[in-house]
Design goal:
The strands form three sheets. Strands 2-1-3-4-5 form a five-stranded antiparallel beta sheet, covered by helices on one side. A four-stranded mixed beta sheet has the order 11-10-9-12, with no helix packed on it. The chain has a three-stranded antiparallel beta sheet with strand order 6-7-8. It has helices spanning 68-86, 131-140, 201-204, 217-226; strands at 10-15, 22-24, 34-43, 48-59, 62-66, 93-95, 105-112, 115-121, 153-157, 177-185, 188-195, 209-210. Strand 1 (10-15) and strand 2 (22-24) form a beta hairpin. It is built from four helices and twelve strands, in the order βββββαβββαβββαβα.
């Protein structure tokens, strides 16, 4: 189905349950796909723009909204099916807690920096097989854990006027400082760009940024003050 979203205030992804591949919502979404939509909303009481999440599944030509608990249960079932079919963990899935012999496996599907789904894989989902034994065999056969991803925020001058600030929805003028929040789409590093005034600099920390030394001295000194 085609899902219409407001490009100024909404963005999102869908997940193929058979492959756990993640795609941006820009095209037809196959039936059975899990959907995660983000929407910016300004809250007057706190004077800030926050991001709300909507989860659901596509059934034929309809989108069925769900809460996170419901979508996590479906992701757990899809993860177990993937393990049985491929003798491997799905992409972006890692072992979250120590595996115990007679307990359900606690896994985490780290979709991106802001969206983690805590999966519970029981023997019922694995057709009676012990989760401890199945997943231990996978890891002993050399299945790598979650690879380290670049999570540094990028500071640079806007190369054009095409980028939109994800905080205020306005265009970032060419030549102005823009700050990119890193995220991964289909294993490719991308950035959500923002005007510098919307960034919580102290929370990010200078050590978690890149590109500061490439700025003009005046811009560099100004941004350095944000970290103090």
């Amino acid at each position: 189905m085609k899902m219409k979203i407001d490009p100024e205030n909404e963005w999102g992804w869908f997940i193929e349950p058979d492959t756990f591949k993640i795609y941006k919502i820009e095209e037809d979404i196959p039936s059975g796909s899990f959907v995660n939509i983000k929407e910016k909303e300004y809250i007057e009481d706190i004077g800030r723009t926050v991001v709300q999440s909507t989860y659901g599944i596509v059934e034929g030509n309809k989108f069925q909204p769900m809460n996170k608990k419901e979508i996590t249960k479906l992701l757990s079932e899809a993860c177990a099916k993937y393990i049985l079919m491929n003798d491997d963990l799905p992409p972006k899935v890692k072992i979250e807690k120590e595996l115990k012999k007679d307990k359900a496996a606690q896994l985490a599907f780290v979709m991106n920096k802001h969206d983690t789904f805590h999966l519970k894989i029981s023997d019922n989902l694995l057709e009676g097989k012990n989760p401890h034994d199945v997943i231990m065999e996978i890891t002993q056969n050399g299945t790598p854990g979650m690879e380290e991803k670049e999570e540094k925020w990028k500071i640079e001058y806007a190369k054009s006027r095409r980028s939109t600030c994800k905080s205020c929805g306005m265009k970032i003028e060419k030549g102005k400082v823009r700050v990119g929040e890193p995220y991964y789409y289909d294993d490719h590093l991308n950035y959500r760009w923002n005007h510098e005034k919307y960034i919580f600099w102290k929370k990010i920390g200078q050590q978690n940024t890149t590109g500061l030394d490439e700025l003009e001295e005046e811009d560099k000194e100004r941004i350095m003050t944000y970290f103090k």
